Amino acid sequence: MSSGTGMRVVVTGATGNVGTSVVRLLSEDPEVTSVLGLARRIPDWSPPKTDWSAVDLASEESDLVEQFQGAAAVVHLAWAFQPTHDPAATWRANVLGSMRVFEAVAEAGVPALVHASSVGAYSPGPKDRAVDESWPTHGWPDAAYCREKAYLERALDTFERDHPETRVVRMRPAFLFKRQSASEQRRIFGGRFLPGPLARPELLPFLPDIPGLRVQALHTDDAASAYRLAVHSDVRGAFNLAAEPSVDAKVLGEMLGARPVRLPRTAARSAIAAAWGLHLLPASPHLFDAVLRLPLMDCTRARAELGWRPKRTATEVLEEFLQGLQQGAGARTEPLRGRKVG
Questions:
Q1: Per-residue pLDDT tens digits for 30-70
Q2: Fewest Cβ atoms closer than 10 Å to its Cβ: which of 8, 159, 234, 302?
Q3: Where are the alpha helices (DSSP H) in 215-313?
Q4: Four-residue CA torsion sign, 284, 132, 305, 234
Q5: Which residues are CB-neighbours of 231 under 8 A, at least 6 positions away?
């Protein structure tokens, strides 16, 4: 590992969608002396000042305390979305793995923990106005992703009470996209055999307009900028992260040149449930239920206290992502490997 004085930052989940952006930004930061990226598989990619360590957070044999020694901050991004049919497996990886990270941060005496929470941690909320970070974080209990994110919010409440000397920051971003994440996200949510070229606008004569399907999006690099700012600042607590505008069928229709057609929730959910039940679709109907109920987020605190501003609009983010889908875009890490199907 890199040695020397200065700011050393450890990043878990460093080879994923968010991790690659965070590692790159930190490696370019003159105030950061070294970056240690933790991942299950060491990538064929190494930015300046960056070292790697193969670590499985789900394994009780991982010595995280040793990895965290001397770090100025730990940025915890590691997360497993699959297998969606085995919630016990994702609970072990995400919840128990995160608890090991929190305990190791305390034992190693790391001054700051920046944790990747999510809009998915929020309880159901409004679609006609934005809520701030005080909105309840009890998630949507039927969806494993939301249930796990919400549970970790409670775990961090206890951690902060027991370790007030550790500065804890909870990032709650909207849906995160970038060109290089297209292949990974297609595999996670659409399945490995879903052809990316189907994302071409000319193949969409109409767009399903489902009641409640209004969400926020953000470029992964813009989220990474907020993580970097949190590492350097003295802030604590939660921060909402999202770009404008919020995205619904009308916005997507204008962007893609497709006509929105009203589709009842029950019809859409039934189709998703059938495909998920047959193992044709990785994304579960429970996650679909949660998305329809997610609140819109107010990002005033991130602007005021972090000085954060997203550089890209939500529509620019989605246009870049769709191009990545069509081209089978990826990156030189195992989670982000590119693959074009069809």
A1: 999 999 999 999 999 999 999 999 999 988 888 999 999 99
A2: 234
A3: 220-232, 249-256, 265-277, 285-293, 300-301
A4: negative
A5: 7, 9, 26, 32, 72, 73, 75, 112, 114
